Each structure stands twice: as structure tokens, then as C-alpha cells.
Amino acid sequence: MSVWAVLVAAGRGERLGEDRPKAFVRLGELPLLAEPIRRLDECAQIDHVVIVAPPEWEEPAILLAEEVGASKVAACVTGGATRTDSVRAGVADVPDDAEVILVHDAARPLVDDAVVERLIGALGEGFDGAVPVLPVPDTVKRVSEGVVAETLDRGGLVAVQTPQAFVASVLRGALNPVRANLAQATDCASLVEAAGGRVTTVEGDERLLKVTTPADLARVRGWL
Ligand code: CTP
Ligand code: MG
């Protein structure tokens, strides 16, 4: 079985508010992007990696992959205006014979083998997709103009992370631009669900925290 990882790093990092894209903000000794590249590269279950970089940052991304000694990086492509556009650009560079595509946010630097193993194992049970989830500790309400409209039943709610694993052909179909509302999607599983795919969940990992704000960056730094 051939497993390809698409590492999306093409966001601007506006909420982080630095002078460069989030993937190139320093995490430890190196830019943030170095961490997920190295970790995916070292993951035994992953055969090849496609990096999706912001426009004009393709070259620095390739140099970073060389710097960490990554041997599985097959390509570095330019991302698009939305996350979905960037995923589509990355998936377009995955060859047709790939069986599984794993999509991962570079903004979640601390990806590890254990979660990848859980995801691939779950796909093997016949699902179209698998996503890591964590329980939602707080009570969640739907609010309209500052007024509570509804309190959701927390029991059935989870927070979803990446990496997300998919049967390659199913993900390709779900990314098909003729489908509506692709731009708004914040993860790939929602596209697969909308296309009628069956997505299962596996245990997530607190350390897969997505770096969104400076406080998140500090937390992830502390875990290095
Ligand atoms: N992403 C991408 N292409 C985009 C938007 C996002 O590849 N056009 C990637 C980001 O690089 C990140 C992941 O999708 O790894 C999750 O996005 P997010 O955390 O929102 O990152 P940014 O869009 O960079 O941050 P912000 O929304 O604060 O600008
Ligand atoms: Mg964003």
C-alpha cells in the first residue's frame, strides 16, 4: 500500500501576526515547517511527502527539507487562496497509484507515528476517511448576535485535528471543484462527508495543537 502525505503550509498566519507566513516563523532552532517535515519524513508508514508552500516560499521550503535531511519529499507546490485550494494543489501532485492520502496542517508541528498508525489502521477497517479527535471539555452553545440560541449536547461533540487519512480516490472525488461550498471547508473530512464518504474517528493528541495565536506557539515551543 502506498501512502502519501500532503503537508499544507501555504496559509498566511494572519492571526499569529508575524512578518512572514506561519510556516516560516521560528519554533525551536528552525522555522516551524521543519518540524512536521522531519516528523512525517521519519514516519515509517509514510512513503512520500508533498509540501504545499505559500507563493514565493517554495524555494525556502525545499531548502528546509534538505536541511533536516528529509528523503521522502517528492515535490513542493504552490498553495492557493483557501486551505481547500492548497490541499487540491498538493493532491494534484500525488501520483494516481497512491492508495492513501494523509492531509496534515503544518500549523500542527508535533505530528507523530502513533496517530498515523491509528489512522491507517482505521482506514484498513473499510472507511473512506479517518480523523483524530479529542473530547470537547467545555459546554458548547450556538450564539446569534450575542444571544444564546442553543446549547449543544456535549456528549456527541468532538474537536477534530489533522493528520486526516483518506482513500486516495475518495479524497480526489471530494475535492472536485464542481461541488459547492468547497472554499468554506476548514478540513478535508467535511468535503468527504459531503460527498457521501464514511469517516471514522481515532484518538487525537493534545500535542497536535494547531498554532493559531502567539500563545499557541509558546505552548508548542514548550513541548519540543
Ligand atoms: N493553509 C494553506 N493554504 C491556505 C490556508 C491555510 O495551506 N490558503 C494551511 C495553513 O498553512 C495551515 C493549515 O492550512 O497549516 C490550517 O490553517 P490556519 O491555521 O488557518 O493557518 P493560516 O491560514 O496560515 O492562519 P490564519 O487563518 O490566521 O491566517
Ligand atoms: Mg486560515
Give me a quick take on this structure.
With 224 residues, this protein is α/β, with parallel strands linked by helices. It has seven helices and ten strands.
Helix content: 25-40%
Task: Characterize the largest beta sheet: strand count, sense, and whether it forms a barrel.
Answer: 8 strands, mixed
Helix/strand class? alpha/beta
The span between the termini is 32 Å
Number of strands: 10
Low-confidence stretches: none
Please report which band the strand proportion falls in: under 5%, 5-15%, 15-25%, 25-35%, 35-45% or over 45%.
15-25%
Instruction: Report the C-alpha radius of gyration, rounded.
Output: 17 Å
Principal-axis shape equals: globular
Present as ligands are:
cytidine-5'-triphosphate, magnesium ion
How many helix segments? Answer: 7
* Topology order in helix (H) and strand (E) letters: EHEHEHEHEEEEEHHEH
Mean pLDDT: 95
